[in-house]
Structures
1.
Amino acid sequence: MGKKWGRYKAGGRSQPVSCVYCGRLVPRIKAVSVRKGFRVDPRIPGIDRRRVFMPSFKGYACISCAKHRGLI
Ligand SMILES: [Zn+2]
């Protein structure tokens, strides 16, 4: 009782983030922020783009993945 879990101090704002491509944990300062969205192919018949839910999220990619995909 009353045991306090100290706040994670080490590193401060450089908490590791996981790469959205390879899933590797990388320090945030070394990660590249990416916005990943799911594009719906407008050529697909019967799809109204305005009604399709297109989620997008912000993620991070490690340096190697970012380079690989031309993000940086
Ligand atoms: Zn990666």
2.
Amino acid sequence: MAPRPDPQADVRFMREALEQAASVLGRTSPNPAVGCVIVKQGRVMARAATAPNGRPHAEPRALEIAGKYAAGATAYVSFEPCSHFGQTPPCADALIAAGIKRAVVGCLDPYPPVRGRGVAKLRRAGIAVEVGVLEEECRRLNEGFITRVTRRRPFVLLKMAMSLDGRIVAPRSGGWISSAQSRELVHRWRNECDAVMTGAGTVIADNPRLTCRLKGGRDPVRIVVDASLRTPPQAQVYRLRSAAPTIVATIEDNAERAKQRYSNRNVEIMAVRGSAEGVDIRALMRELGRRGWSKILLEGGAHLAAAALHAKVVDRVAFFIAPLIFGAGMPAVEGIRASNAIALAELRARPIGPDWLLEGEPV
Ligand SMILES: NC(=O)c1ccc[n+]([C@@H]2O[C@H](COP(=O)([O-])OP(=O)(O)OC[C@H]3O[C@@H](n4cnc5c(N)ncnc54)[C@H](OP(=O)(O)O)[C@@H]3O)[C@@H](O)[C@H]2O)c1
């Protein structure tokens, strides 16, 4: 007999599964970050998350820890268990074989080979399945993966720091606009995204590193969008030591020249179709999606931000508003005509130290 449902316990254990998933965010592409918790008679027998690079999945890892105690237990899984043979056998089969009697699933997987089939397989095997516990949080955690499989490109988070009057360049060079607390949040995002992207203008002006400076964090891949190869090869982003490479995304005509110009071992050249503005941003995003990358943090200047918004590849804007009024300087977005104004579905605001973070999704 399946264990009796207990809505409060379901939420509590799903939250634990979500915590597991969150701990590996940014490390599991091309697969989603999933958490699995096995519970028997109210006690946790195992907790596990998807392994680095996406394999093994969370469910077989948790089942291995639970061993014989999985029989008759409830499995809490933040994302629908897979039902198809990919690089690993189906997780739904593993749950069935282990004798799981009840499964609580956070959200369904929109990936066509799975999409509801994992849950159907469990039900056919006589497992009691409940779907949708903490559904919104489970979806949001894997918004990158969901965007990639439904839109064939990564989720793009456009981050900018600005004064109250919308200027993104501090009058004194070297000065930060946003607070230490805001910058720490950005480092957390770098830690969770597959890649961070910026434009040639920002590399020339700021010489950023674009690494993750959190204790225990890991560097994302860095992508510099540079159509005419204006960025100097001695820029920090091309010279720093990092486990992740820096990619120069340039137009096809300049790819060979780029290979010679940026010959550092840790730099890769990506040739992308050109557009009137330089690199075709949509084509670039599609290529990043083909590589299995799910989430990109866009930290460009005003021109790259405008190009990405105009190309409709931005899924969320995150604007940090600092308590400063500059009165002059570069605006946050440069080059969108008023007739092409971007609307956001809603705007959420929260304080981060002395700053306000405004977030919203373009419609
Ligand atoms: N406060 C903040 O959050 C923040 C964040 C980042 C930067 N910034 C500031 O922004 C300033 C730089 O802004 P920016 O607008 O000059 O530089 P940017 O947006 O970082 O880079 C723009 C450059 O990228 C290249 N590019 C290639 N393809 C493109 C495309 N499709 N669309 C747009 N650009 C493309 C172009 O150079 P090529 O034609 O040569 O390829 C273009 O000039 C700096 O002063 C920096 O401090 C502020």
3.
Amino acid sequence: MQTVNIATEIKKLVKLQEIDTQLYSLNREKEEKPKILERLQSEFEQKKQILKENEEKSKALLLKRKDKEGQLAVKEEDIKKLQAKLYTLKTNKEYSALLTEINGVKMDKSLLEEEILKMFDEQDGLRQELEKLQIVVKEEEGKFNEEKQKILSRVKEIEAQIADLESKRAVAEKEVDARILSQYNRIIKGKESLALVKVVNDSCQGCYMNVPPQVINEIKMNDKLIFCEMCARILYIPDEPTT
Ligand SMILES: [Zn+2]
């Protein structure tokens, strides 16, 4: 059986893990991007919805005003007819009764006129609001499309980087002893791309728990893989002092 040089294998694993760390963060970024896009889209859609509601409100108000204007025209017509009728009346009693009626219709008419004026004001306010909203929506649309392009091109970039790293990984993997590799691969799955960790100042850099002196000695002996008792990662002592 071929003897395995642990120190050399650790160095290979360090290289492999560098690739895995990059792959991990790229994959996470790739997963995040569509979510960012969705969020931007829903923000933009919300503003579009507000614009739509305001447009509908404005249309409804216009219809209501047209209706009131129709009612006003009827009242004006009524007044004319009643006034014409005044000349046909014989008695003072009939005359004053009709005058009262005319005044009543005139009151209705001026109420309608007030309502219509208010509606004009309301419509002016709405129109200004709509113009502002239209500008906002247009800006948002521009921003959204710009962001979308950026995100899509970043995703393409990420995909290319991932493909490149995966082929590098396949090469780096072949270098590692099969048994050690399978241990490494098993650990890395559950540990967010950190299967191999340094021991710095007697503590594991994966879980920051103290590594007992006996374990440190075992690592230094370099004859088998040593695992952190707390987080189960592979421990190693870097050649260079780490700051
Ligand atoms: Zn640990």
4.
Amino acid sequence: MEDDQFLEHVMDLVRDHLGGNEPNGDYIEPSSLSKISDLGLPLEGRGLESLIIDIEHFLRYSVRTDSPGFMNPLWGGFNVAAFSGEVIATLVNNSMYTYELSPYATLVEQALIRRMCEIVGFSEGNGTLTTGGSNGNMIGMMCARYRIDPLGQQRGYDVKNLVCFVSEESHYSVLMAANVLGIGFDNVIKVACDDDGRMRCDKLIEEIERCKKNNQIPFCVVATAATTVRGAFDPIKEISRLCEENEIWLHVDAAWGGSCLFSTKYRGLMDGIELADSVCWDAHKMMGVPLVCSAFLIKNPEILRKICAHGDSAHYLFHQDAENIDLGRISLQCGRRNDALKLFLSWRDKGDAGWARLVESYMGLADYLEDMIKKESSLEMMSSRDWTNVCLRFTSEGIDHNDVNKQIRDRIIKSGNYMISQSNIGDNVILRPVIANPAINIKHLNGLVEEIVRTGHDVIRGIPPNH
Ligand SMILES: Cc1ncc(COP(=O)(O)O)c(C=O)c1O
């Protein structure tokens, strides 16, 4: 088969795949899937034609994240502008380290970073696209560590006494970063949250003072805007005041909530963001750009340049004449894919106003879902709501709530119509649909509520699943 013909086939498969109604229509247990799959790598190549069957099989058993029933993680949907950006970026296969190798892509990425810095309020800021919010959180902590001990980069860090503070509902990536940076899990202090899942500033100051008394050095607070389970926004303005008074770096993990900044209605959720030292913001979450697309933004760009410095050891890549334009000097990666084009094309397609409408429509749908839950006697909200995370459970007198809700979620996932996540708030198992998918409308939310209620009643009556 010729390349052209093959590509046409692939595009037909792409078109057929789009618009699937069930996110998990062909749910299959892992052991059965491996039995019916041909995963052998041949000694002699089979040619392009055989790949069509491989691709069909792959698509058949992939979750349809573009389906309106997909409400599980913090992203979803199909974005045609971004899809074309992804394909074109792969076509040209640039690497982002030097201007020489990625001239236009370098300008595109810097245009995005400049705009995101403006939106955050870092007028002199800079940044880089990274492999995700987890990586952005780690870079923020690296910058914080550098500020407290710039010579450590050369000498090696003695980090035994460094402590970092996060809310008890923060994302696990902060622990991962502490591991990578040698800070240690014990030195990530989990600050208590209020009833709505936001970091308590009175507890933060207590923890800072306790650490200082123990001769530990508070070097970083990671505030979360919005948390993974409840979508709670930590009070950035108050936290920044404590950070300033105690000379602590403030990094804001806005991987999930950063998009509120587009909306005049919801921007207040991140009031004070311009007071932070660094921020991460995932365009691959609410903005619906395909994974991965995530920005790390910093108020003082010199610190980012310093932590990414590698002297003149990469003389085969970097030359002084391009020192200020080569993005490899402000990134931890060497070879780096172009994640910028897909975000750039989506932004050109939608504009700031389009992003604001997207955020506001998602919030409208989440409000609608919350109202329905409050009206339905066999459902209850399990948390207040700031963002589009809707935390609920099925309820009935005398049941083991955790067990019943786990069974409900298991049946729903296997029935294929909806994918929602199961999490814990305190000791309670909760169901957590999230609105971050442009395919969702009111009809799908009605269907979801109906399916949870019906499944809950089936579980408590002992009626077996019908799949
Ligand atoms: C609050 C928060 N921060 C960070 C992350 C990690 O982001 P990523 O998956 O892009 O590494 C997540 C992921 O869900 C998150 O919810």
